[in-house]
Amino acid sequence: MSEFAMTVREMDERDIPAVLEIQNATHFENWDEKIIQKFLLKTYTFAYVAEAPDEAGNWKMAGYAIFSLAADEAELLAISTAPEFLRKGVATEIFAEGEVALADAGARTFYLEVREHNESAIAFYRNLGFEKSGEREGYYSDGENAILMSRPL
Questions:
Q1: What is the pLDDT of residues 70-126, one digit of tens each?
Q2: What are φ and ψ of residue 86, in 5° steps?
Q3: Distance of CA 115 to the CA centre of its chain
Q4: CB-based burial of residue 98 (10 Å sphere; 0-12 exposed, 13-18 middle, 19+ buried)?
Q5: Among the listed residues 1, 4, 29, the one whose alpha carbon sits nearest the alpha carbon of residue 84
Q6: How far is residue 98's CA from residue 59's CA, in Å, rounded to a whole number?
């Protein structure tokens, strides 16, 4: 659990501008508004946001995650934390919320891809029980390889 006030809820269209702001601040893959809107319309997509107070006490989006489900396989499509909320448990809380929903929906195995040079993300996923299960060459738009990770749910 985090040590500060935070809420996690389902993402909706009103959250898209803040999601894009976090995406831009964290240099995540460049999904535009239409891509995120499409995810929100799919019945197999689970999307969550965390909200927390900033230093001035104003509540704002602290992070988000988007998951998908196909048969009994869950996949983490994106997870990101706003820079001012890093290392405060935001990603862990959002992930946990998605994990419960995916398990309730029938997921049995969890998969994800992560940039091979993103050591902090790889460590985060290992702490969640993920193990390397493969690689995808040139997976990202800049040509960087992806590490495939998986674990039972």
A1: 999 999 999 999 999 999 999 999 999 999 999 999 999 999 999 999 999 999 999
A2: -60, 145
A3: 14
A4: buried
A5: 4
A6: 21
